[in-house]
Amino acid sequence: MDKQVREQVEGRNRQPTAALVDSQSVRGAETVGRGGRGYDAGKKVNGRKRHIAVDTCGLLLAVLVTGAQVQDRDAARPLLRALRACFPTISLTWADSGYAGRLVGWATAHLTLTVQIVAKLAGQTTFVVLHRRWAVERTFSWINRCRRTVRDYERLPDHHAAMVQWAMIIVMTRRLARHQGT
Predict the structure, then answer these.
(1) Torsions phi, psi of 63, nearest 5?
(2) What is the pLDDT of residue 181?
(3) 181 in helix, strand or coil?
(4) Residues near 16 by Cβ (< 8 Å), separated by ≥ 6?
(5) Fewer CB within 10 A of the end CB, N or C, for the chain?
(6) What are the tens digits of pLDDT across the range 78-104?
(7) Do the beta carbons of residue 22 and residue 137 sit within 8 Å?
(8) How far apart are CA 182 and CA 169, in angstroms?
């Protein structure tokens, strides 16, 4: 379905060539077991973290759900492996400074994938829309429109990942229906 949306609605190629990665910490309900949750000290969130890769239109390409304590650069390796396996046409990925470090060289050497870090502007203290970064943030807001994804209620991380995918299916179906109706 993402290929249809990309081609028919967005007027792009069916296969993406660039991606954006980011993560979002989500509070866990009491149904989330201790083994599957963690504490994100930066955001002060006890729960899970969802790591996503999206194309430049904001359409979901890959999702990985971990405990909230997992650092972005640590979860990025399995996320980028999955992204490369499913979408071999992607050659460039944008990420925030949480992904800086050895990950950039690792992705180039092992996956032949360029990871470009989009850093904050010099002296930035408030929210500023950064080039290319807004698409992944917009995707998080689309995902959060679904009640089951605002908070993590699932016992298993894979079940929460399925809820994220389901939320994006709803978004893509609505976009296709609006486009078909015109």
Answers:
(1) -140, 140
(2) 66
(3) helix
(4) 6, 55, 56, 59, 61, 87, 89, 90
(5) C
(6) 999 999 999 999 999 999 888 998 999
(7) yes
(8) 20
